User: Fold SRCR domain-containing protein from Hucho hucho.
Amino acid sequence: MGPIHMNEVQCLGTEKTMWNCVFKNITSEECQHVEDAAVRCNTPYMDLENSIRLTGGRTRYEGRVEVLSTEANGTRSWGLICGGAWGTKEAMVVCRQLGLGYANHGLQVGVSTKLTAYTRL
Assistant:
């Protein structure tokens, strides 16, 4: 798994992208992968968005949320979102940004868990 790029994400649910939500930048000491944010959207993935993606799900429209971030040195890397305060509003923004309709679930998943084990509704 990659680094974690976002923490304490708070969305109203109407934002067009995750970058429009309030969040904190993070170091690995502040959040562990047992708190990774995930979503399940209601529409199949169309591969239209290139700055956010879902990985590790049973289908292409569910999984851990990864964002493409630009580091200070200009390199770009995929990283995860810490899901400590993750909920349906944040999941709605991810699904909207990906063109996947509305969110069925906002999830927080651990490293060794099945995706549906920790649903937060």
